[in-house]
């Protein structure tokens, strides 16, 4: 598993398996019931500041004056709204079911950690925050004209940042990634070319595969495991407005439909400074 987001964010993200707002949960939805969930439903969250702590000290002496500095926990992002794909549905990005093929054959699919979802090898070793993530890629033929498109539910901008976690099978030599923000009328208000982050992941060729031109590092050796990378954007310009995020992904190398993963798309206050959105790009 990659390092988790803010525990509170995860409670929000997992509470419905898709979209939720902080504070909407009733506390009974923490245990996702997924394989390997042996937390007993508490996710390891305990109240370390309880007056019943057995330290024998005055409770006012061990609070750290409300700073949390004595907990040993690193600061984390503060998410107000999140969506994930833990229920296996594409509904949070506008489609029914768990997999869909668009008009040009482009793919969107909810994939599970440890599963096989590429013609190359090594993706089964990748760890997610939960058990599932969104996969986007061009069609089976690997046509450069085949574009995978995902559009989120609306969220209200109440905090400065919008972020997600992502990992691509290869770098920008083989994949194009870009995004739009849309208002309630469906008008594009901003666009952004996204970095194609592999998170250090290097897949391998399967037996009998031909080498991929320009990717000498992809061989029939051992894969290099990577981690999903956080990308943070600044949406403070649209405070108070309802927006949707639209993601686009397609291959740049004909006959090779490389994948990109997205997970935990959240709005709130992040620890890192957000990238600025650019002017609307009508070519999207």
Report on the structure:
Helices cover 4% and strands 29% of the residues. The model is unreliable at 2-69 (pLDDT under 50). Strands 1, 2, 3, 4, 5, 8, 11, 13 and 14 form a 9-stranded mixed beta sheet that branches. The two termini are 34 Å apart. The protein has a single domain, classed as Jelly Rolls, CATH 2.60.120.200. The protein contains 1 helix and 14 strands, in the order H-E-E-E-E-E-E-E-E-E-E-E-E-E-E. It has one helix at 7-16, and strands spanning 19-21, 78-83, 99-101, 107-112, 132-137, 148-151, 155-156, 161-168, 175-182, 188-193, 229-234, 242-251, 259-269, 275-276. With 284 residues, the protein is mainly beta. A hairpin with a 5-residue loop joins strand 3 (99-101) and strand 4.
Q: Distance between the terminal alpha carbons, to the nearest Å?
A: 34 Å
Provide the residue-averaged pLDDT: 82
* Unreliable stretches: 2-69
The first-level CATH class name: Mainly Beta
Tell me the fraction of residues in β-strands, as a range: 25-35%
Task: Output the number of helix runs.
Answer: 1
* Overall tally of domains: 1
Global structural class: mainly beta
Major sheet size, sense and barrel closure: 9 strands, mixed
- Secondary structure tally: strands: 14
| CA-atom Rg in angstroms | 20 Å
SSE arrangement, N to C: HEEEEEEEEEEEEEE
Q: Report the principal-axis shape.
A: globular
Q: Any key phrases for this structure?
A:
284 residues, 1 helix, Jelly Rolls, 5-stranded antiparallel β-sheet
Can you describe this structure in just a few lines?
It contains 1 helix and 14 strands. It is mainly beta.
């Amino acid at each position: 598993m990659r390092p988790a987001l803010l525990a509170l964010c995860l409670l929000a993200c997992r509470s419905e398996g898709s979209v939720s707002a902080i504070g909407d949960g009733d506390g009974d939805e923490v245990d996702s019931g997924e394989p390997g969930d042996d937390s007993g439903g508490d996710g390891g969250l305990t109240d370390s500041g309880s007056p019943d702590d057995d330290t024998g000290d005055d409770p006012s002496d061990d609070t750290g004056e409300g700073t949390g500095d004595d907990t040993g926990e690193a600061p984390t992002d503060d998410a107000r709204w999140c969506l994930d794909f833990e229920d296996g549905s594409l509904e949070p990005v506008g489609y029914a079911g768990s997999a869909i093929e668009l008009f040009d054959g482009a793919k969107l699919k909810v994939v599970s950690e440890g599963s096989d979802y590429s013609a190359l090898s090594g993706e089964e070793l990748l760890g997610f925050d939960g058990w599932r993530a969104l996969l986007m890629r061009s069609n089976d033929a690997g046509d450069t004209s085949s574009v995978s498109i995902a559009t989120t539910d609306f969220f209200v901008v109440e905090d400065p940042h919008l972020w997600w976690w992502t990992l691509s099978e290869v770098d920008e030599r083989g994949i194009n990634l870009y995004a739009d923000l849309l208002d309630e009328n469906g008008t594009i208000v901003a666009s952004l070319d996204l970095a194609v982050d592999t998170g250090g992941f290097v897949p391998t060729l399967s037996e009998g595969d031909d080498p991929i031109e320009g990717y000498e590092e992809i061989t029939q050796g051992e894969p290099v495991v990577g981690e999903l990378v956080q990308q943070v954007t600044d949406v403070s310009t649209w405070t108070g407005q309802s927006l949707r995020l639209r993601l686009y992904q397609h291959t740049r190398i004909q006959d090779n439909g490389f994948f990109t993963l997205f997970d935990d798309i959240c709005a709130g206050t992040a620890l890192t400074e957000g990238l600025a959105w650019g002017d609307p790009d009508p070519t999207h």
